[in-house]
Amino acid sequence: MRWNFGSVYRRIFSLVYLANIITLVVLIARYAISADRSKFTYQQASIAVTGNILAVVTVRNEHMVNGMFWVFGTWSKNLPLGFRTLAAKVYSYGGIHSAGAVSATFWYITFLVLLTMEFQKAESLTVSRSYIYLVSYVILLLLVSMLVSAHPHLRRTMHNWFEGIHRCMGWLAILLFWAQAMLLAVDSTQTSGTSFGKTLLVSPNFWMLIPITLLIAYPWTRLRLRPVEAEVLSQHCVKLNFTYRNVHFGQAVRLTDAPLRETHAFGVIPFPAVPAPMKHDQGSTDYTHTEKGPLPSKENNNNHSDYSHDSNPSLAALKHHALTSPTTAGQLTHAGERGFSVIISNAGDWTKKIIACPPTHIYTRAPRTPDHPVRIIWSTKDPVKTYGRQVVELVYKTDPRPW
């Protein structure tokens, strides 16, 4: 129950969705029992639609995501463990995105019903209202299509289709929302006599569509085509080296070779510093024992003396070598240089294509910048064969006890 329906993601989804549905039910009930139809109009329903869409795109903005992680990661440090555990689930913020999208669709259906009822009161259908009908029902088709394609089962089995529908139909829907707002303003000027400009300026939808559009366009202002050096580690893995900026652990960057179709987020690995000679004295840190037990040593494992000649060293040998042996610049690619790496492993169609045909240039978006210590959680099959000695040793040097 806790990990399925009771997950934090679904609890957030339920909270946002129920708040919308309860509000909608109350307004519909008030509309049904009252003779005053002005208590619930299509204009009010459209405000709820646009408000939910604004929440949907805002919560996906990377600066907003950084802000949430900073707030929940910083302010909860002095709280009891239970509160800190809950704050650590901030990554479930996607529940707001999903619930807002579902709620916006139901509000939009209500808007369309009220709009149709209002327009049917007129004796004839004007040209502007015929276009409003056309645009409005096309928007409904787009919203329902995006909702259906986002179902977990369809999203897993037809992920590329989901991405395409979500992107292209989402952009088209925003354009049509702008067209709808303009057409409704034209219709209002014909019935009320107010000017077109004044009608727009007093419309909440107009003012919410502006930040919605800017939030969607903003990531594209950070899109850059960067040169990249591909370093093939195995048939299942490739390392991409970038030199355009420095980063630190905990950041991420989005990569793509087709910006209009898809982007993929990856964690970044800063280029290593030029290693200093390791000091061996009585004050040196003893890495031969950890909380997980003793590490191999020359006394209990003679193979370590032949480490450099071993074509397939064990993880224990790699860990011992990483923590007890000095690292030379020759052992690390790009040591002391400006830049960072991204490791791409075979996890789908796009990654498989990048591994098979490593690019010389690729599109990037600027990395995110959380500022907090990180631990390494790594799940992989045969790490030495897949990623190579250098990567495995780098993992152990960064975190002697990776999970």
Automatic annotation (TrEMBL):
Stretches the record annotates as Disordered: 279-313
Transmembrane parts of this sequence: 12-33, 90-110, 130-148, 168-186, 206-223
Keywords from the UniProt entry: Membrane, Transmembrane, Transmembrane helix
Biased composition (Basic and acidic residues): 279-292
Signal sequence, renumbered to the chain: none
Alphabetized InterPro entries for the sequence: Adenylate-forming_domain
Compositional bias (Low complexity): 300-313
Superkingdom of the organism of origin: Eukaryota
PANTHER family from the UniProt entry: ENZYME, PUTATIVE (AFU_ORTHOLOGUE AFUA_8G01222)-RELATED, TRANSMEMBRANE PROTEIN
Protein name: Uncharacterized protein
Provenance organism: Staphylotrichum longicolle
